[in-house]
Amino acid sequence: MNVKYADDYSTEIKVKGEDFYFDDIGCMIIYAYEKNIDIEKFLPKVFTKDTKKYIPILQAKYKIGDNTPMSYGFAAYENEGDGMISYDEVVLKMLRGEHMANPKIRKKVLGQ
After folding, report:
1. Can you tell me whether residue 39 is helix, strand or coil?
2. What is the reported pTM?
3. Which domain of life, per UniProt (predicted)?
4. What is the rounded distance in angstroms from the CA atom of residue 47 to the CA atom of residue 106?
5. Residue 79 carries which DSSP code?
6. Inter-residue contact 70 to 95 (CB < 8 Å)
7. Residue 6 lies in a domain
8. What are phi and psi of 67, to 5 degrees?
9. Residue-wise pLDDT tens digits, 80-102
10. Under a CB-based contact definition with an 8 Å cutoff, are residues 50 and 95 in contact?
């Protein structure tokens, strides 16, 4: 987790002076939930697929359907597009198991 990533799905967060990097936004959400970390307090950043830069996680728009490193399927974008959701919706979906690592959701998203 403490390896710097710069790919289309990575996130970074600084907690108590230590930088944490995750290869998939779903991993960061689960980590924060398990450690009882208030994500909004630490203002993490997410690497955007469209502009290829880190932006504040709350400013990004998200879309499900990508083949992400941990198969959760959420990609962040700086620019708005059809079918995109907010970070809060991504968190809800992750905690409910409504991500592409869930075979039922994967089938629904991919239209299979």
Report:
1. helix
2. 0.86
3. Bacteria
4. 23
5. S
6. no
7. no
8. -90, 85
9. 999 999 999 999 999 999 999 99
10. no
| 40, part of any domain | yes
pLDDT, greater one: 49 or 6: 49
Number of domains in the chain: 1
Q: Among 15, 17, 33, 36, which residue's Cα sits nearest to residue 25?
A: 33
User: Domain range holding 62?
Assistant: 11-110
Instruction: Name the residue among 66, 103, 107 with its Cα closest to residue 83.
Output: 66
Query: For strand 54-56 and strand 61-64, is the pairing parallel, antiparallel, or unpaired?
Result: unpaired
Furthest-apart CA pair in the chain: how many Å?
45
- pLDDT tens string 30-78: 988 998 988 778 878 999 999 999 999 999 999 999 988 899 999 999 9
Element counts in the chain: helices (H) and strands (E): 4, 6
Residue 51, in any domain of the structure: yes
Is-contact 111 83, C-beta < 8 A?
Answer: no
Strand partners, 45: 12, 56
Task: Name, in order, each residue with C-beta under 8 angstroms of 32's C-beta and a sequence gap of 6 or more.
Answer: 13, 38, 39
